[in-house]
Amino acid sequence: MFDFDTIKDTIKRGFKQYMFPVGLILFQCVFIVLYAVHAKYGYEVDDNSTEIISRNTPPPKGAVEYYYSFFQDVHVMMFIGFGFLMTFLRRYSFSSVSFNFLVATFVLEWAILVRGYVVDWDSETKSFSVTVKNLLHADFVSAAILISFGAVLGKTNPAQLVILALAEVVMQIWNEHICVTYLCAYDGGESIYVHVFGAYFGLAASYSLQHKREVESPKEGSSYASDIFSMIGTLFLFCFWPSFNAGTAFGDGRVRAITNTYISICASVILTFTVSALVGKGKEEITHIQNATLAGGVAVGVVSDKNIGLFGAMIIGSLAGIISTLGYKYLLELLKKIHIHDTCGVHNLHGMPGVLSGLAGIVVASMPWRSLYTENLGATCLSGGEHRSAGTQVGYQCAALLLTLGIAIVGGLLTGTFLRLSIFSTPDNDSYFDDSLNWHVPKDFVAENSALGSLIKSILPNQIQLEEMPNQIALNPNTLEVIQETTCRQ
Amino acid sequence: MFDFDTIKDTIKRGFKQYMFPVGLILFQCVFIVLYAVHAKYGYEVDDNSTEIISRNTPPPKGAVEYYYSFFQDVHVMMFIGFGFLMTFLRRYSFSSVSFNFLVATFVLEWAILVRGYVVDWDSETKSFSVTVKNLLHADFVSAAILISFGAVLGKTNPAQLVILALAEVVMQIWNEHICVTYLCAYDGGESIYVHVFGAYFGLAASYSLQHKREVESPKEGSSYASDIFSMIGTLFLFCFWPSFNAGTAFGDGRVRAITNTYISICASVILTFTVSALVGKGKEEITHIQNATLAGGVAVGVVSDKNIGLFGAMIIGSLAGIISTLGYKYLLELLKKIHIHDTCGVHNLHGMPGVLSGLAGIVVASMPWRSLYTENLGATCLSGGEHRSAGTQVGYQCAALLLTLGIAIVGGLLTGTFLRLSIFSTPDNDSYFDDSLNWHVPKDFVAENSALGSLIKSILPNQIQLEEMPNQIALNPNTLEVIQETTCRQ
Amino acid sequence: MFDFDTIKDTIKRGFKQYMFPVGLILFQCVFIVLYAVHAKYGYEVDDNSTEIISRNTPPPKGAVEYYYSFFQDVHVMMFIGFGFLMTFLRRYSFSSVSFNFLVATFVLEWAILVRGYVVDWDSETKSFSVTVKNLLHADFVSAAILISFGAVLGKTNPAQLVILALAEVVMQIWNEHICVTYLCAYDGGESIYVHVFGAYFGLAASYSLQHKREVESPKEGSSYASDIFSMIGTLFLFCFWPSFNAGTAFGDGRVRAITNTYISICASVILTFTVSALVGKGKEEITHIQNATLAGGVAVGVVSDKNIGLFGAMIIGSLAGIISTLGYKYLLELLKKIHIHDTCGVHNLHGMPGVLSGLAGIVVASMPWRSLYTENLGATCLSGGEHRSAGTQVGYQCAALLLTLGIAIVGGLLTGTFLRLSIFSTPDNDSYFDDSLNWHVPKDFVAENSALGSLIKSILPNQIQLEEMPNQIALNPNTLEVIQETTCRQ
């Protein structure tokens, strides 16, 4: 009996330790088989570049060039943008940037497959083809998962992240497919299908993961350097957001998507600085600048390629900046009270601005000359196909937003509950927001927990108010005492 | 009476504290109205992408694709490049990267408007249209303002920066408009209209702002990490500079602008390392690498799209690297003596290389087969319109350079004087180069001013010369004494 | 006599100190002359953009636009990617990012010249023309040199790096020219001609440079911040690798090169995380994430534009991730034993994956319907020119790989031996991996060697095992003792 138990234990421990790598390998093998059987290259129709090139005349610019630079911008947003935006946690930067890296690549492989089966399946050739546009779509899907990742950041282990990604990808793609093909709700910048979905899925998952567990750690804070690293992410997201919203738009729509997003996100930057100064008694909060500044890109998404006028984009962006900043200032704590811990504040950056974008879409839908909604209609659309009325469109825009919210929340709750299974060994409060759980860390990382580190910490409290009178600090008696007490007691 | 005074005080204080956010909101509202009344999308002439797309053939590549990737490169230069280049100040990195972010976005909104009225106004439709090319031009304008920002970095508050931007944008655009439309002086890379203007405007503003106030702070220094952050900015500026100079060029000019800038900036990198080692007795100075390396991009600007030959570009770039590095080594201090404090050394990176570029333009103008100056002429040009002689062009190249210098310096002096008004409450020497004035800073930022920080500082002086013999440092008696004195006195 | 000696000494010292800057200036002058005599702009055939532009219709998209955005991506890979990837050394970050900057620019100027004479020479006009494609090729060459740089990082001075670059460029270009023109071995992503060549050249150079000299320094380590800086490089290399492999491909080949590289590098990321966790007992190693994740981009290079199927790309990428990670875990130490010190582990990231890529190329060559090898054949090809058989192609793929290995290793050994000449005054073990040798460093850099620094170091050893139980650390008695001993002895 006893023997049997130990064996069981060993197996359990071994399973917990190796579930993550072994699981990844298995998935990878399955992926390879599926790609071998069903994926093929998406060539362009009668492309004769070769011949032309040889004649030393300018090569033809096809779909590749039409999408590639937009794709690359979005690609940078996913890996540098999201990756570094999350490095703000002073003791969790390795995990933030690296797990973002892992999850994103895993999602890209998985999303191409799922979208291939759900969206691009060619029943004749029994296959789906992969073009640059498909890569771009895969990046959009990964955005949703990375947003959810932001909500549970620091409180999950890699194994849980991979499972979460595995499940969310399927739901996100099905939800988008239904909304686009049958509800025919437009969402140029994917604000509903990506931002709203990702945010509320993540919040729901975080809720059921944390259920009845407190999140209270001194490690959940930034350092001066980690905050600057985070700004790298912010600025790349800012710069390339027009590429995100205009990625799949074309013709006049592309011009509108670029200019609208550009203006909207500029407006949200300005309003973020404004509101942050107002609520901060004249001082800015770097967290607001890192995040809320981008809300304008999210909020304009649904109508980014619509004829809303540059002023419309500015209004939307300004509102987004206000809402998002206020969310970071006041809402985060309230959510904590109802046991929703949102590490990166995705509710403020993606959730609320995403809903705002959905509402903007509904309002605009009532103005056909602005929504040009017929461009998005096809034979498969419910209620009249291509001949749907503007009023009906309004209804379906609402439907898409509500359906997305529903699927995201239910899906997130279920996934979160599943991830609580003991086999996943969720990290506990002590190892939250700490790289040493998952990483071999350099010496100076450990130092912070050392006697010297504690010495520093013991000095800090006295400094906080002294901040106002820096000239006196050096002489501050308390601090000297502290040092004596800590270091010189005989 | 007394009562009245207190009220006046409260109002004054309130005004000073909220002038910045409230002012921003007002501007934003005005902008929205103006955009609503006068801005419209700039569509391409008979673009029928939609239909073509549906036929699944390669979509047409229009003006959007012709400018977009260049625009994105320049966009990154403004926000990542300039933003991070300025993070070198060890205690001012939040402000550097964030206020750069704020100012740039504010300028983008404002510049599109002003250029719309001054340059692109269509008197028939009573409106101006916004294309990707306009966004690119707005980025060029913001470059000028961000350069000026570099001169006053750390010595101004956000409110002052916004006012400065507001004024400078108008002057910069008018100056460029006059020089391009009437003087018809070519300046492909905007070295005169952006770099010279921005640099001397900033220096003049810094002069009148600092008038009779000393700038002497131990905080005006870099840390090892902040210097590396700064290199992020340097390298992105370096990589994308060809996009900056070739942004608005076309045809053969585009090929020349790209290759000339590429070669010129490479040359300035090499000469910077060379001169830095020569004047540093075999050791390099990171400040030179962060800045002077880019001088070649500025110096080739005016003639970037001209037929100067790659060797010409190399010569210009080499000279720029030499001048700029020597400027950083010797000129900064001299300028300080005449009360011009130039935080980022914009005079060395943008001022002198910009003037050098103007001179190159004058020389090249005397060689019509190289300047191809007629390409830049139109009916509106003074002295003969399109039939202007090469000799005349030489004169007008001089005129443009001098006019720009004049407007920049006068404009900068006036703006700086205005910004000295007490209501703007310029920070004083103690709060220069310090984030804690405008930011809620993380704990470790304060630590530097703490007892531990002062302990570190007190140890450092002894280290400087010890640097040469690291093995002895641990045993250095002085330092141990210092620690005792600081921490263990009973 | 005595006098004569001192003079000799002074000259020697002066020579050693100024050889680097003076040498650079001389090269620059020679370059300028050569560019003046032989380089001209590479215009497109009958390009009439100007006229078209004026008619306000979309401008034509020529070769510039076809290559430019790919070129810019690769450019960022060279300067940001390689530059920051190497910043992981905690006390050598200035040198890593800056010397990468210098070497890259020097190589770009030099490579355009050498390729101009070797590859693009037009014997009629006695000149060669420079287009965006040439700039792209120059970037490819610089990649090889920067890889070699990674092997000797921290153990060489700038003068040596420049000489190494000077020699390697010539050999790399000749080797590629022979393999492409006569052996006609395909290598779309330059994995053989750039990665294999660069890696083994660097390793050979490192071997002969270090011959009979030990490399053992506590400074050869990372810090928490420097590891995150390094991730900037990793992620940009990851994002833009498809542009590297697809840079010179066209038509269908471009689609395949992009998608294959995308999938292959994603696979290597996932396998790297997997293997790193397996060999690390459940904990990840940041070094693996920084480097091995990119092996998939290298390994797919040779066949990147071939019809290998996405599953083929995944298999190659997965293998690369495994090999590379294991290499970092186990091989680095073994190589050290045979006196090959590989600072960045280029053997694991570029060497082995490059060889793997070469083998993949050989295997694929035996499947003509996949290798489409005839596309790469021309009249100059040995054994049958354009009518070469698939079997023959297999042989020539082997030949190209072996020839490259041979030239790289022999060339590296010779160059390394030459660089050992005393005049180059190679830094010795004490000044390895230390910026203070070549830089004027900020105060906080020195602090690490100060009494406080040594105090921190003395505390660390006790921390390493405590890492597991962070709650006890503050109370750890040993550490307190240490502080007393160090600071409070009377």
From TrEMBL, chains A, B, C:
Query: What keywords are assigned to this protein?
Result: Membrane, Transmembrane, Transmembrane helix
Residues forming the Ammonium transporter AmtB-like domain are 61-423
Cellular compartment(s): Membrane
Please give the Gene Ontology molecular function terms for this protein: ammonium channel activity
- Tell me one Pfam family matched here: Ammonium_transp
**What is this entry's stated membrane topology?**
Multi-pass membrane protein
- InterPro entries, per this entry? Ammonium/urea_transptr, NH4_transpt_AmtB-like_dom, RhesusRHD
What stretches pass through the bilayer? 18-37, 66-85, 97-115, 135-154, 192-209, 221-241, 261-279, 310-328, 349-369, 394-419
One GO BP on record is: ammonium homeostasis
Annotated Gene3D superfamilies: Ammonium transporter AmtB like domains (1.10.3430.10)
GO cellular component terms? Answer: plasma membrane
Give the family this protein belongs to, as stated in its UniProt record.
Belongs to the ammonium transporter (TC 2.A.49) family. Rh subfamily.
Q: What is this protein called?
A: Ammonium transporter AmtB-like domain-containing protein
Give the source species.
Rotaria socialis
